[in-house]
Design a protein that fits this description.
alpha+beta, 16 helices, Rossmann fold, globular, about 25% strand
Length: about 500
């Protein structure tokens, strides 16, 4: 596989009439995709198939001459019915759940050009066990040791004796449900063992009650520390086109504390890198994604057309390390692409679905960008309390600061926008320095509120000098430790102990 990241190249759409594009999904990710497509030189008509009316998507669709169609996006046949009335030239599937439910499969069978993973290909995100098994079978670099469990009894026994571990739901559940347990204080070992076992029971109950489409319930991985970043790539099944690195901030509160969310904000730039990730680490990250894509296509015997994103971490154990895959754009990470890319995004999508991605070269802007989510109080732990509050957004004020607003968990009902219990909006801004851009976004946050006085919150530290310096210091520490371990040949062998099986060596 090859990847390119250089000067602009125009891919010409050969159709005669105005291009019609359908976007499946209803969140800020899809709003960002719609905005990028709407700015294409081909002036396409955009149609959105969504489970609720997102005011931003409705505006972009209708402004292009298209419309928003309400539909259960998890029902492939319902989506197909909506799409057939539109008869689009290309379909972009935004979220992961429609992929898991086979929406792309049905649309492809009907003969449509689809930018989005099929149900079999999207297993690389849906099943974290499948992803880990794939990486170990094909000996792909950056893989973590793990154990997976179908029964709560086996999982409880294992974690009761485990040390430093990360406990995860074995299925993708929207970026939530991860618990990291460090075991470095001997006097707390029994207490932490009880915490691990109690969490496994809770996690198994949650997975069983909400999902019936996966066998494994709990995944336990070795704990690694370092700096996380996201590598989003576009592929046509033959070539991989890496996009600029972005760093998500999943924790709800300042200084990376609090429960994990779908993403409180993200930073990007300058160029293809981040301040704490170097060019060699970028290349090695791309190689991990490329190798995984080759393995996935070999196993499934299907061509991958769409987005394959690696949630990476720079660690002292393996250097660039794969935490998990996404079979779609990250949210909020995709919002950063609006200001980062100086390339016709629709041309890239069309090149992917037609198998001509190798001809596309991206042109990037030199600026940096910051995205921050504004959320209702209660998110993410009490979404019921965070739901149903009227939303007021002063868009002219946001635009006066040179920023863009993307609607996320906001539903339009009878002319009034209400919170859905998730993030309300995401605000994107770009400029010369992270600190200046971050400050402008903070001023824009004041333009977002709930009309009934319900509190909203955001993370002001995203893009701040203090947080960036912490990232730089940690990256330098783990980078130096990694290369020391390499020089001492301390990288490859791992030891684990499994009840009833004894000592297990990984290589």
């Amino acid at each position: 596989m090859v990847y390119v990241l250089a000067v602009s190249c125009r891919v010409v759409w050969l159709g005669g009439e105005m291009l019609k594009v359908v976007i499946v999904g209803e969140g800020a990710r899809e709003h960002a995709i719609a905005l990028m497509i709407s700015r294409s030189s081909t002036s396409p008509k955009i149609f959105t198939v969504a489970s609720y009316v997102n005011p931003g998507l409705k505006r972009v669709s209708e402004g292009s001459g298209g419309k928003l169609v309400r539909c259960n996006t998890l029902d492939p046949m319902k989506v197909a019915e909506a799409v057939e009335e539109i008869s689009p030239d290309v379909i972009v599937i935004g979220p992961e759940e429609p992929q898991f439910h086979g929406v792309a499969d049905v649309l492809i069978d009907l003969g449509y050009a689809v930018f989005g993973a099929t149900s079999r290909l999207s297993q690389i995100e849906k099943s974290k066990v499948f992803m880990r098994e794939l990486m170990w079978k094909y000996r792909i670099p950056g893989r973590l040791t793990y154990q997976a469990f179908k029964s709560v009894e086996e999982a409880v026994e294992y974690v009761g004796n485990a040390g430093d571990v990360v406990i995860k739901p074995a299925r993708q559940v929207g970026g939530k449900g991860v618990k990291v347990v460090a075991d470095m204080q001997a006097y707390l070992r029994d207490v932490k063992s009880e915490v691990r076992m109690g969490y496994v029971r809770k996690l198994t109950d949650d997975i069983t009650s909400h999902y019936s489409d996966i066998d494994y319930k709990v995944l336990v991985e070795e704990r690694v520390e370092g700096v996380e970043y996201t590598l989003m790539t576009i592929t046509d099944g033959y070539s991989v086109l890496p996009l600029p690195l972005v760093q998500d901030h999943p924790h709800a509160f300042e200084l990376d504390i609090g429960p994990e969310t779908g993403g409180m904000g993200s930073i990007q730039g300058p160029g293809k890198l981040l301040p704490f990730i170097n060019d060699d680490e970028f290349v090695r990250s791309v190689e991990i994604v490329e190798a995984s894509l080759r393995a996935l296509q070999e196993v499934t015997k299907e061509r991958y057309v769409g987005v394959l994103s690696g949630q990476m971490m720079l660690t002292s154990s393996y250097g660039p390390t794969l935490i998990e895959f996404y079979s779609r754009f990250g949210d909020p990470e995709v919002a950063n692409l609006i200001s980062a890319l100086d390339t016709d995004f629709l041309e890239v999508v069309e090149a992917a679905v037609s198998g001509r991605l190798a001809a596309v070269k991206l042109k990037l802007r030199d600026s940096v960008s910051v995205v921050k989510a504004v959320c209702p109080k209660g998110y993410p732990s009490n979404r019921k309390a965070a739901k149903g509050h009227p939303v007021v957004v002063d868009e002219p004020k946001i635009k006066s600061y040179g920023c863009e607003v993307l609607y996320s968990g906001t539903e339009l009902v009878g002319g009034t926008a209400y919170t859905t219990g998730s993030r309300i909006v995401e605000i994107l801004c770009d400029g010369d320095t992270f600190q200046e851009v971050s400050g402008r976004v903070d001023r824009c946050v004041e333009a977002v509120r709930c009309g009934d006085g319900w509190e909203v919150f955001h993370r002001s530290d995203i893009g701040s000098e203090g947080l960036l310096n912490r990232r730089l210091a940690l990256a330098n520490l783990v980078r130096n430790t990694y290369w020391y371990r390499v020089s001492r040949n301390l990288i490859n062998t791992k030891v684990d102990w499994i009840p009833g099986k004894g000592v297990i060596y990984y290589d």
